[in-house]
Amino acid sequence: MAALLDRSGVLALIDRELADRPGPAGLPARTVLTGLLLAIHYTGKATLAEAWRILTFCLSDTARHRMGIRAEETLSPTRQLALSRRIYRAFDRITTVLDPARADRRRRLPLDEAARLAAAWEDDDPEHIRKKAVQQQICTALVTTTIHIARRCGALRHWQGDVGIDATALASWHKHADEQHCLASVDLTAGWHYSGGSGTGTFGLSGHLALAAQARPARGRIAHIVLGLAVDHPGRRTGRNAVTLLTPLAELGLPAGMLAVDRLYTDARPESFALPVRALGYRLVLDYKKDQRGPQGDHPFRGSVMIDGTLTCPLIPPALANATRRLTDRAARRPDETTQTQINNRKPYFLHLKQGPDHTGTIRLACPAAGTSPTVNCPRRPSPRTPPQTVDLTDPRQRSTHPAARPTVTAPDILKGKMPDICYQQSISLHPGDLGTIEKFRQDLPYLTDTWRGAFPVIRAQNEGINGILKGHRIDISEPKNRLAHGRVAQTLLTALMVTIANLMILDVYCQTTRGEHLSATAYTDISTPEPDQPGPHPTGRPPPRPS
Q1: Residue ranges of region Disordered (predicted)?
Q2: Does 3 score more than 90 pLDDT?
Q3: Under DSSP, is residue 282 helix (H, G, I), strand (E, B) or coil?
Q4: Buried b / exposed e across 371-394, counting CB within 10 Å, b at 16+?
Q5: C-alpha angle with apex 152: 521 to 158, nearest 5 degrees?
Q6: Is 284 in a helix, a strand, or coil?
Q7: Which segments of 260-321 does DSSP mark as H helices, in order?
Q8: Distance CA 262, CA 429 (A)
Q9: Mean pLDDT across the stretch 76-90?
Q10: How far is CA 362 from each of CA 194, 284, 351, 538, rounded to the nearest angstrom?
Q11: Whole-prediction pTM value?
Q12: Is there a contact between 382 and 388 (Cβ–Cβ < 8 Å)?
């Protein structure tokens, strides 16, 4: 565990912050964090009491010497108690130096004083922003170390870059604010976290987790580990926290695939979530609320309309356009046969992707009746006259591509000069931000189709699987008794350590089930990263015909 900390770079970040702190150096941060990692590994609890017990009674003299603990410090109860105080003070130094606004964590402050201290987490003071950035760097460094280990043992060899992001509640040990007596909570920055579908909130913080996911069809087995962690006030900076989790993955050279998120992130402003995520190379797979389904937006984009996140021909039949309008969540999860048929029949009316995103994120789209492979018939784009050809009715491809098999739209008589751009131009360009506020609804897989169901529900189920591990019987990040230290800095550090151990557990199980052996001890000391298998590019159009 100590070698893992040494390799992660976390200790260098902490030591740099402690360098200018007056007074004696005290117990090294390496000792305290190693004790916490051991406590989580053996007991599942990220408490200083368990860390002290393991450091005092469960290590050999040689191991304690390497941790900076002298042999005489464990000889008598008095000295053991003194060692426990050193451990507590060492952890307090770490959390104090990283806290933008250090406060008394032992009593409930008046509401006005607490509000002033909590504002330090939200203001634009450069020093406060820097300290929050260091906290996030520590979380990222710990999780990134386990990613290096996963790549070394081949656990991400078949990973195609698919990611699922979810927010989970980190319940607080303390009570919420008492408005009647004008007393704040001991957790100054905690708030109410509401999980989807639940009207009961959890008082605490929100932990945003990125998961290595795998949509269908899968190339091979992977280890579904946590790729990133961000702890924040519930409901704030939702989109920016997701981008914070994904940015280090790009810096590691990992592939970018599909990103599936729940409706909390769908509601984030496009400039804080959708646009930067697409700039990183991810393809969005989203879900919608009841009042967001169906046609989206009041103003067509160059004639095209957005229906459930996909730009569509403006002449699509109203019955198909409104097939999911006001559809309940239950009906969306299991649509009846009529609704599913209408959803599938939308496909020919979707705009064709003519060119994928360039270096600026711009894509080119074409009318579904244009080009060499039209999917609808439209009087505004008459088909070229060609000699009659014999159709092999036993060939499904020939039958489906024949003009008689394509739906025909009914176009009103409009002068060419008044037609929308999509109806007479060869293609239209969609630049990042062109859609305005409805950009947040745009996704790359048609909603509720088979391809969407092969990605979104699968990745979301894997999200629930990692939540089951992180909130299981061995490690439970949702139980406040397992992380009793006060303050948001302490909660962030302890949660990051618990996620790190959970990742190591997942990798150990992966090695046992695929190789029949435990995770090698050398994985902790040597984290040189081999070149991973790079997945091929995602298909962007119709595949070429197979040779007969």
Answers
A1: 371-407, 524-548
A2: no
A3: coil
A4: eeebbbbbebbeeeeeeeeeeeee
A5: 135
A6: strand
A7: 263-266, 274-279, 318-321
A8: 28
A9: 92
A10: 36, 15, 15, 17
A11: 0.87
A12: no
